[in-house]
# Entry
Amino acid sequence: MDNRPIGMFDSGVGGLTVYKEIKKAMPNEKIIYLGDTKNFPYGSKSKQSIIDLSKKNIDFLLKQNVKTIVIACGTATSQALEEVQSIYKVPIIGIIQPTIEYIKSKENIKNVGVIATRGTIRSKSWEVNLKSQIEDINVYNKECPLLAPMAEEGWVDNEIAKLTIHEYIKEFPKLDALILGCTHYPLFKKIIEEQMPNTEIINTGEKLASHIKNMIELSTNKEKAQDEIYLTDTECNFINVSYKLLNEKIELKKATI
Amino acid sequence: MDNRPIGMFDSGVGGLTVYKEIKKAMPNEKIIYLGDTKNFPYGSKSKQSIIDLSKKNIDFLLKQNVKTIVIACGTATSQALEEVQSIYKVPIIGIIQPTIEYIKSKENIKNVGVIATRGTIRSKSWEVNLKSQIEDINVYNKECPLLAPMAEEGWVDNEIAKLTIHEYIKEFPKLDALILGCTHYPLFKKIIEEQMPNTEIINTGEKLASHIKNMIELSTNKEKAQDEIYLTDTECNFINVSYKLLNEKIELKKATI
# Structure
């Protein structure tokens, strides 16, 4: 048993989709969430910048005495996970491996699409991990640089979002599964499913939540825990978008990293 | 007479709209353009980050022996112009003042809209400058965080761009003029004009070009000069978008700032 909280970070509101899944799977675990809204978006930053920012985020969370760290950001997972895992002793988990494990377990998934930020796609993290761990898998990638800014703007179900999704997915062949390789993208899950009715849309946060439930020592809390949400810049659309996502108002604290 | 080149910088391709206007006004002047694509977008960065990046860009251009520096970026003009003007001896000009001078000269412009990045709007540079220099002017601001990324993606005349423009301008009252407060936005000028047929759409680059033509010592070149275009990250959509904008292929060089 370990009553310390779970720490998690993202470049903005996107990681809240992961937060939501962890909360659903383990309501009694206390979560400390850090949204680095000051440095949003990570998607088009260099690898070194993303490593530096990830280290600052982790240092902040470690000061809050967390027992494990979740990188709830596709770009930071693909660019910085390996580096920070080699530096810190605390267990650090990213959004890629749990989804790979899931796909491994499903024999019918052979043609996989990945949509993500420019940085994530160019890092080839998804492609390399999928191909090295699963035989005979075909991977189709698409950079979607407008989706994360659009989610931060709160445009997740209007006509503009629908057309933008269409523009990005229109060249995929028939897919068995589509990985939402950026944690913002589950905000668009409904409209993606409408446009790809025969494809399994994979929310990486959901796979991550079931994975860490088996991995960590749970707390002895008997009630739903009160979480803490920190942002590095509070002048942003976080409140509106988080409300859309979680259906509840959340109290935000200012963090300096 | 001064045969040194004109230096200019922007966070990406947006400044090419200014480049185009300067070239039209002074074809024989040699221009050195620096697009800081590695650090794009500036729009959501802190004031201090933008000052630091602007100084690096200026240092790079000064090494190329330029006679004047144009900040072809709305965000850098609003956040860093005053600071860098106080540090460097070379004349530095931003995109705001030439447009203010133009509006001053037009008595019929009383209701002005400004569309720009979040950083530019929140800095209040346009509003403060307009109101302090022109009596009885009404200023209406709108942050448009998706437009610059959309321009970098090359989506400047599709249905998505049209709907996005509509979404951003729909709450303006009747305007005499609309200032395109980010140098990317002239890429959308045609579709904005279609949606606001009775409003003068002001391209700040055009006003800046006529202003510096009167300000600088021109060169003795008798022919159209061969310009140099540098980028801090060449893996981007710059070529596609620049082609759309200038109708010519340009040779790109890599710059380290």
The first helix of chain B runs from residue 16 to 25. Strands of chain B lie at 6-10, 31-35, 68-71, 92-93, 111-116, 138-143, 177-180, 200-203, 228-231, 252-254. Chain B has eleven helices and ten strands. Chain B has a mean pLDDT of 92.
